[in-house]
Structures are given as C-alpha cells and as structure tokens.
Design brief:
Oligomer: single chain
Radius of gyration: 33 Å
Number of helices: 6
Largest sheet: 22 strands, antiparallel, barrel
Shape: globular
C-alpha cells in the first residue's frame, strides 16, 4: 500500500515537472511573438510577465485574439497604438472613505505643464515628433519649430519621445511645477527593443484629412530622374495628383491648375517652382528637412490657394560638428555644407545646386562651328542654379532666430550668326540673339519665442522677388565692302516681376492636452509688374535712316491680409475635431474684397486601429498665372484680381476611413467633392506672350467640379517597404463664353495607379522601383471637315474653302500612360569614415513610348487619320555622392 502511494506520488510529481517544463511564461510568449510575428511590445520591466501562460496555442490566432488569450485572467491591460502594443498594470478603483464634499486637501492634485523641444544630436529640431506619457497615455506632437507642450497631473511621469528613423528616448519627470525639457534623439536605430511611441502624424491618428508628411528618406528614395532627387516628382506619386505632361514637374491636385498650389519655403511663398521648363523642381533635396503636403482639408492657418499647400522646411544646420556632402550627377551637381559658427549656439547651412548643361553645350557647339563648312554659326547655352543659405542663433531655451535665403535662376541664350559673300564685293550678315532669364529670390527672418510653457510664437518677416525676362535681337546688314547699302536692327525686351513684402505671426497655445489652439495674422504687400516692354526698330540705307522706339509697362500694387484661428479638440477617447476660420482681405485700386473661409475636420476612432474622418474646407485665391502653355515658360506672368473680376473660390468635402490591421499595414480610403467658382481663363491668345495690358477684360469666368476616390496602402516589414495608391476621379470645367456645357479637363485622368517598393537588399545595397499608370490626357481634335459658306452669300459655292469643325473641347483621349522607374544605391564607408553613394537610375525602364500629343493629318487620297507623337525612351542616369 505504501509502495503504491509512493509510485502514485512520484508519477504526479513527474507529470507536474514535465508540464511545468513545457509551459512557457508570458514573457517567453511575448519574445516569440516579437521574433515570429514582428510585433513590438511596450511595457515596464516591473510587470509580472514571468507567470506561466496556460491558454491555447497562439500559432494560428489573429493579433487581437492572441492578445486577448495571452493576457486573459492576468493583471495586465493591453492597447494597440500605431505600430506598437502597450502593456500596463491593471488599476483597481478603490472605494473612497471620503465624501466629495469632505475631500482632504492632501488628495487634491494640481496640473503642471511639461514643455520643450525635440531635436537630434546635432541640434536640428524635429518636426512632427511624438511626445507621450506612459502613465496616462496622453500624447502630443511637436510643431514646425520642434516645440511641444503637454499638461499633466502633479507627480511622477515616464515621458517618451519618438520620431521615425530615430531611437526613442524615455525620461522620468517629477512634476511639482512647470518643467522645461529637451529631448535629444539618436538617428538610425537598428535595435529591435520595445518602443512606446505611436506616430501621431499618421493618417490614422491625425484629425485633418488629406495630409501627407515627407522627410529626407521619402525624397531620396534610391531613384532620381537624371540623378537629381525631386520633391515635386515625389508628390506626383500621391493619390489625387495628376502630373501633367511627361517629364514635367506639373502638380494638378484634385483637378486644380498648376497656379492653385501654395508653395512655401521656410514660410516665404515661392512663385517659380521649376527649372528647365519643368524638368527639375526648384527645391534642393540636400537641405530640405520636412514637407507637409495638404490636398484635402486645409487647416485655417493656410490660405491664398484653392488646391493644395506644400510647406517646405529646411535644415537649420549642425550646432556641434562640421560636415557636408557633394554630388556629381548626369546633368547637375550639388554641394552642401553645415556646421557651428559658435558651438552649441549659432549654426549655418549652405546648399548649392547647379546644372552643367552649359559646360557641355559650349564646347560642343564650338567644335561643331569649327568643323562645319556652313556659313551658319549656332551657339546655345543653358544652366540653372539653386542656392540655399541659413543662419540660426539660439539665444536661450525660449528664444531663437534664423535667417533663410533662397535664390533660384534659369538662364538660356541662343545665338545664330550667318555670313554670306555673294562675291568679293558684297557681304550679307545676319545675327539673331535670344536671352531668357527667370527665377526667384526669397528671404525669411524668423524669430521664435516661448512666452510660457503653454504659449509659443513665430514672427516671420518675408521678402519675395520673382522675375521673368526675355530679350531678342536681330541684326541684318548688306554692304559692298566699303559702304553699308542696307542695315536693319530690331530689339525686343520683355520683363515681368513680382515683389512681396510681408510678415507672418503665428501663435501656438496648448491650454490642456485636449486643446491645441493656433491663431495668427499674415500681411503681404504685393507689387505686380507684368510685361514691361521695350521695342527698338532702326533702319538705315544710303538714302536715310529711321528709328522707332516704344515702351510700355503695367503696375498693380495690392495688399493682402488674413487673420486665422483654429482649435484642435479631443472630446473624448473616440472623438476629436479641428474647427477654424480664415478671414482674408484683398485691396487693389481702391476696391476691397473680403472673404470668410470656414474650416472644419472631425475624427471618430472607435478602435485604436480604425478611424473615420470628414472635413469641409472653403478657400479663396486672389492671384492668377497667365500662360499660353502647360509648360513653365519665362513668358508666363502673375497678376492680381482687379476691380472688375471676382476672386477665385472653392469649397471641398472630404471623408475617409483609415485602418491598421496590424503593425505592418496601413490602409486608407478617401472620397472628395470639390466645386470651384470664378475660375479664370485667358480668352485671347497672342503668340508666346499673352498681352498683359487690360488683361482682365479678356478673361473668361468659369467654374469647375471635381470629385473622386483615393485608396492608399502601405506595408513595412524589416528591410522592405511597399506603397500603393489608386485614384478614381472626374475633372470637369464649364466656361459659358467658350462652351455652354460641362467638358472634361485636359488632365482628366479617370484612373491612376502608383505602386512603389523600397528594398534594403544588404547593408550596403538598396533598390527602389515605382510603376505608374494613368488614363490618357485629353486633347481637342476636329470631328468634321466641311466647306465653309461664302460671305455675303452665306452658303457654300464652287469657290468655297473647307475647314475643320471642333464640336467639343478635349473630346479625344490619348492612349493610357504607364512606365516603370527603378534605381539602385550602393553605399561604401571609407577608412576615414566618409560615406560614398553611387546611384544608377532608369526612367521608363521598359521603354514604353507614351503619347505626348496627337494631330489630324490628311492622306493623298483625301482620307484623314490621327498621328500620335511619342518620343521619350528609357533614360539612364547616375550620380556619385560623398558625405564628409
């Protein structure tokens, strides 16, 4: 009997030991999920995670089922925030022995404000970094100056700061009064440890619709057209954006025109945003820190354009070390250098980009002219440059000042010289010269001041100068060797310019974690000078001479002022809203226009991984660009609304759903409807220079309606990132003086698909690919060829001529457009710790010739046919970059 009991006891002990050996703890299950399922957890080391897990196998469960099973009947709560799972101890609410009216003074806790800045180790302020309190779950985000403010209860708090591409940092803060704290983050985090910070700038978390933020890693993707990274072409990959004509940096957002986009560089407006007729954008990617792109609901702090806002912020410069880079590309090169002037206090950042097309074209044409037997000598020279310079000085933790300067310029000149000698006695000489020059000069003086832990302000003085200049000269002389028989001289000069003087005041007030109030005032004094012309024509021969000169100019001074206020409110754990208004005033020639543009956005987030948003936005635009082409030409000019025109205005409704099924995926679906009134279209074209004199009397006033749906998805896992977007859109316009019904816009691309991938193949090799597809652009072609009636008979006869009939604008769709771009980066670190990057890129990798335009032609037998023109093949390019 005793033996039987001993055997039974031993068996039970053995089974218990075996069962215990096979049972994993909660901590081991978390480690397994982290390795196998790539799930990141957030928890304090004091949590009781060493207890055994006795539930079902987690092998085939969803993430939600896994978490519920793992932490069932435990003392641990979990929540999904962005890409991370946050764990915390369950809190029990104990019944109080005190009545509300008899609460002791010791139980009353005060609120205090934690404020400061997020920056990297070089002192560069981080925009849109997330600050979160681990204890309460309250969070906030840094503004465009890297400033944050969060009000928390008195006591001890664990504060984490996170920013994409950087290691998170945690600080323990004891709040007994207001505290100022700066977070310094290290770049290039490769550890797979537990992090807390969700990305509050994610479309899942923000209240605003249609906002996308881009950092350096989004611009420098591994692919670049002609080896030059391009901000505008990066934005063209976004859903809801049409790119226009191939190779150009067009930006047609939700059906709007190119001039309906507000471009800001450090708060200063930029009028000319492209080089080489749109081949390159005017932004140097080496100095750009962050881009906020709004295509849907605009916050109230932005105004003046109808379609989009592109807010570009440049780097301040390293406060502690000298370093930089230079890049040699196929058609251009760049140099960037930054460092301290006073270590830890004053810094500089300098960037220069210049094309060297002229360095190649000059000797090429010189060799051609020397070797050619023709009497015709031809020269062509073109180059562009961008210069960015910034000086930043830190006075103390509350005061900072920076001076930002941008200069961009295109220059092109042609010279055609012809000499012909009919005999030894007579000479005929012809000379034709053309000089084009266009560009910007921008200056912004920014002063940042923290009035209190809750109130932060920016004061910005801005100056903008935009110029387009064109000069042509023709000389012809005919002589007999000793006397001029005939001599002609013709000279034509054209210039358009804008000068803006203004200031911008913006205040950032955060009274509590549930309210983020912004308010401010902008004022701009515009000086428009479209088409100052000078004309000289002289004639000289043996009988006399005659000279004619003529000049004209246009001058439009105007004042524009706006006041705005907005409040982003968190109503509860599910609801948040952003409500605001932008009131604007525009005065010109004694006429004053006033407009009130309300803005409203709302978010409902029933679960941590799902949110729904809707917004209403009203916009007004007072300036317009006059152009006779969809290309960026130096003969284009900007003009203001005058006393006989209405300002352009539009309103837009946007709604969407945003879903994050797990930490690797983010999916969003947005729909929009936009209606525009008083869209201006020039009705009288005259060569390449539409006349600016009385331009406002030659305008057509129309309207537009634009609507569609946008589906976006992104996937991140280890070394692979995928992005995809699909746009279904309708873009229509109506000008009663031009055509009585609605017709499709030129860039009404019904379907647009963009798929991109970034793969870090090895530590030193990365690859990028982007495939884009969209329905063809629209063009206008004739539908009939009929005999025209004679005048005054009013009917065709034997002597009548025939002509084409155009029944409807943009009545023909070109073939669908698609292409593949790929690029590779090869990294190498030298023994001096200098990074070298060799990039090779291929535009239109599978060489699909896409349509540029089409025309109607007639065969010899009288039949008509449409001839399609497609020219752009695969374009390889390369660049070599050294960082020092």
């Amino acid at each position: 009997m005793k033996l039987r009991k001993c055997v039974l006891l031993f068996f039970l002990l053995f089974v218990s030991l075996v069962t215990t050996a096979k049972t994993k703890t909660m901590r081991q299950q978390i480690e397994w999920l982290r390795n196998e399922r790539k799930i990141n957890f957030v928890y304090d080391s004091s949590l009781p995670l060493d207890k055994p897990y006795k539930g079902k196998s987690l092998q085939n469960m969803t993430i939600q089922q896994t978490l519920q099973s793992l932490f069932a009947n435990s003392e641990i709560d979990f929540s999904i925030i962005g890409d991370y799972i946050m764990l915390k101890q369950k809190t029990e609410v104990k019944p109080s022995i005190h009545t509300p009216h008899r609460k002791e003074q010791n139980d009353i806790k005060h609120n205090y404000t934690l404020s400061g800045f997020a920056e990297d180790v070089n002192g560069e302020r981080l925009i849109n970094a997330t600050i979160q309190d681990m204890n309460t779950g309250l969070a906030t985000m840094t503004n465009s100056s890297g400033f944050f403010s969060i009000t928390l209860p008195e006591g001890t708090h664990n504060i984490r700061c996170g920013y994409i591409g950087f290691d998170d940092k945690q600080e323990k803060v004891i709040l007994k009064s207001n505290v100022h704290l700066n977070f310094t983050l290290k770049e290039n985090a490769n550890i797979k440890e537990i992090v807390i910070t969700a990305d509050l700038n994610s479309p899942l978390m923000t209240t605003q619709t249609g906002k996308h933020s881009f950092g350096k890693q989004d611009i420098k993707t591994g692919y670049a057209l002609l080896s030059s990274p391009d901000i505008i072409k990066t934005l063209q990959r976004s859903s809801g954006v049409a790119s226009g004509v191939e190779l150009t940096s067009g930006l047609y957002v939700h059906g709007g025109n190119n001039d309906e986009n507000l471009f800001l560089i450090d708060g200063s407006p930029l009028y000319q945003v492209n080089h080489a007729l749109g081949l390159f954008s005017a932004f140097n990617a080496d100095v750009v820190k962050n881009i906020d792109f709004y295509k849907g609901g605009f916050p109230a702090r932005y105004g003046g354009r109808l379609s989009s806002v592109v807010d570009v912020r440049t780097d301040d410069g390293d406060l502690n070390h000298y370093h930089g880079s230079y890049r040699l590309g196929l058609l251009d090169g760049s140099l960037q250098f930054e460092g301290p002037i006073r270590k830890g206090k004053t810094s500089f950042n300098f960037g220069l980009r210049r094309s060297w097309i002229d360095l190649l074209s000059r000797p090429a044409f010189a060799l051609y002219n020397k070797s050619s037997s023709s009497d015709d000598k031809l020269n062509l020279c073109y180059f562009f440059h961008d210069l960015n310079a910034k000086i930043t000085n830190i006075f103390d933790n509350r005061n900072r000042m920076s001076l930002s300067v941008y200069s961009g310029e295109d220059k092109m000149s042609t010279k055609d010289e012809y000499n012909d000698s009919y005999s030894t006695s007579y000479n005929d000489k012809d000379l034709t010269k053309n000089d084009f020059n266009w560009g910007n000069f921008n200056m912004a003086l920014l002063f940042e001041h923290q009035f209190s832990p809750k109130l932060f302000a920016n004061f910005n003085a801005v100056y903008t100068y935009n110029i387009s200049r064109y000069k042509s000269q023709e000389d012809n002389s005919y002589d007999n060797g000793s006397n001029v028989i005939n001599e002609n001289h013709y000279e034509h000069e054209y210039k358009s310019s804008i000068r803006d003087y203004g200031y911008r005041m913006s205040f950032d007030y955060r009274p509590s974690p549930h309210h983020h109030i912004r308010f401010g005032n902008d004022f701009t004094w515009h000086f428009f000078n479209p088409q100052t012309r000078n004309l000289i024509n002289s004639y000289n021969n043996s009988t006399g001479n005659d000279t004619t000169s003529m000049s004209s100019k246009n001058h439009y001074p105007a004042r524009e002022c706006s006041i705005y206020a907005e409040d982003e409110m968190i109503l509860n754990s599910h609801w948040s809203i952003n409500a605001g208004v932008n009131a604007s005033l525009f005065s010109i020639h004694g006429k004053t226009f006033t407009n009130l543009n309300p803005r409203f956005a709302m978010k409902y987030q029933p679960y941590d991984n799902l949110s729904f948003k809707a917004s209403y936005t009203s916009m007004t635009q007072y300036v317009h660009k006059i152009s006779n082409s969809f290309l960026e030409l130096p003969t284009d000019y900007w003009v203001p609304t005058t006393e006989i025109l209405h300002p352009m205005n539009s309103w837009q409704l946007t709604a969407g759903a945003y879903f994050q099924p797990d930490t690797r995926w983010l999916i969003s679906l947005e729909g929009y409807y936009k209606h525009s009134n008083h869209l201006l279209q020039y009705a009288s074209w005259s060569g390449i220079e539409p006349p600016a004199e009385k331009w406002d009397k030659m305008m057509m006033d129309g309207k537009g309606r634009f609507y569609g749906m946008e589906l976006d998805a992104s996937y991140k896992s280890g070394n692979l990132q995928l992005r995809g977007s699909y746009t279904l859109s309708w873009n229509q316009r109506k000008y009663a003086d031009f055509y009585p019904e609605w017709y499709f816009d030129k860039f009404d691309n019904r379907h647009k698909i963009d798929v991109s991938a970034h793969w870090q193949i090895t530590h030193s090799i990365s690859a990028f690919a982007d495939w884009t597809f969209h329905s063809g652009n629209h063009i206008t072609i004739p539908t009939q060829y009929v005999p025209m009636p004679n005048v005054p008979e009013g009917k065709p006869s034997e002597n009548s001529t025939s002509d084409f009939i155009y029944e409807k604008p943009n009545n023909f769709k070109l073939p669908n457009y698609h292409r593949l771009d790929i690029g590779f980066d090869f990294h190498h670190v030298t023994k001096h710790n200098h990074e070298r990057i060799f990039n090779i890129s291929f535009y239109n990798a599978y060489c699909h010739l896409n349509s540029m335009f089409a025309e109607v032609k007639q065969k010899q037998d009288g039949h008509f046919y449409i001839k399609n023109h497609a020219y752009v093949p695969v374009i390889p390019s390369f660049s070599y970059t050294i960082k020092f």
